[in-house]
Specification:
By secondary structure, this protein is an alpha+beta fold. The chain has helices at residues 3-12, 110-124, 127-137; strands spanning 18-22, 37-42, 53-58, 63-70, 75-77, 86-98, 101-104. The chain has one domain (3-137): Umud Fragment, subunit A. Helices cover 24% and strands 30% of the residues. A hairpin with a 4-residue loop joins strand 4 (63-70) and strand 5 (75-77).
Length: 148
């Protein structure tokens, strides 16, 4: 499904209902991998809290499932990246499906997600960590196979 089709389906979905979408990006690795599906619970910005994973429409027209790092004003980020420039909130990720494994994303995990995000951002700020990650990515045998 293309992002335009997904956007139309989500906008037509009433608040409180959910829809499964499959992601293609790598911006939330290691939490979400390319090919993971996310269940998006339709809600507005007022229903989000720091530590939630929000599905947002960015100003560049792309859909992103990114971590809410702050509310009032709302700020979302990729796992290691810079803040998004938001157009609007479409919903909150309530579950992740990888292959046959389906995991809920409970709201009680918000603190852990924020702490993990902070730790990874701190680690990523060190050049040795980035170098080690690049060496791992060049390996012929993948460390992880999404859906497998």
């Amino acid at each position: 499904m293309r992002s335009g089709e997904a956007l139309r389906l989500l906008e037509a979905l009433p608040s409180g209902r959910s829809l499964w979408l499959t992601g293609l990006g790598r911006s939330m690795v290691p939490l979400l991998w390319p090919g993971d599906a996310v269940r998006v619970l339709r809600c507005g910005e007022e229903s989000l809290a720091a530590g939630d994973i929000a599905l947002v429409l960015r100003l560049d027209g792309r859909l992103s499932a990114h971590l809410v790092v702050r509310t009032g004003p709302l700020e979302t980020r990729s796992f290691l990246g810079t803040p998004d420039v938001l157009q609007r909130v479409l919903g909150r990720v309530s579950a992740v499906r990888r292959g046959r494994l389906q995991l809920p994303v409970p709201r009680s995990s918000r603190g852990l997600l924020l702490a993990t995000h902070g730790l990874f951002r701190w680690m990523w700020s060190h050049s040795r960590v980035r170098s080690a990650w690049r060496r791992l990515k060049r390996r012929r045998t993948p460390l992880h196979r999404p859906g497998g």
